[in-house]
């Protein structure tokens, strides 16, 4: 687990972008974040999701 990535994902966990995922997709997202060594190692789908959620939250 990459602590920085985990914090980054956690900071946007209550955005509509994340909350609009199906329960299965939220679980897959959390598992991918937990397993990834860094943001760049995440699948593009999850990278794009984090970036969209950060824009929504005003973090980017």
Shape: globular
pLDDT < 50 stretches: none
Global mean pLDDT: 96
Q: Helix fraction?
A: 55-70%
How far apart the termini lie comes to 23 Å
The helix/strand order is: HHHH
Question: Per DSSP, what share of the residues sits in E-state strands of 2 or more residues?
Answer: under 5%
Number of strands: 0
Helix count equals 4
Rg calculated over all Cα atoms? 10 Å
Q: Let me know the largest β-sheet.
A: none
Structural class determined from secondary elements: mainly alpha
How many domains make up the 3D coordinates? Answer: 1
Describe this structure in words.
- It contains 4 helices and no strands.
- It has one domain (3-57).
- It is an all-alpha fold and 60 residues long.
- The protein is globular.
- It has helices spanning 3-11, 16-19, 23-35, 44-57.
- The termini are far apart.
Fold topology:
Elements: H1 3-11, H2 16-19, H3 23-35, H4 44-57
Summary of the model, kept short:
The protein has 4 helices and no strands. The chain has helices spanning 3-11, 16-19, 23-35, 44-57.
Task: Note the main attributes of this structure.
single chain, 60 residues, mainly alpha, 0% strand, globular
């Amino acid at each position: 687990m990459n602590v920085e990535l985990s914090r980054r994902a956690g900071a946007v966990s209550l955005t509509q972008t994340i909350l609009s995922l199906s329960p299965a997709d939220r679980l897959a997202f959390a598992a991918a974040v937990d397993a990834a060594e860094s943001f760049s190692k995440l699948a593009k789908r999850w990278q794009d999701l984090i970036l969209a959620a950060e824009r929504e939250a005003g973090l980017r």
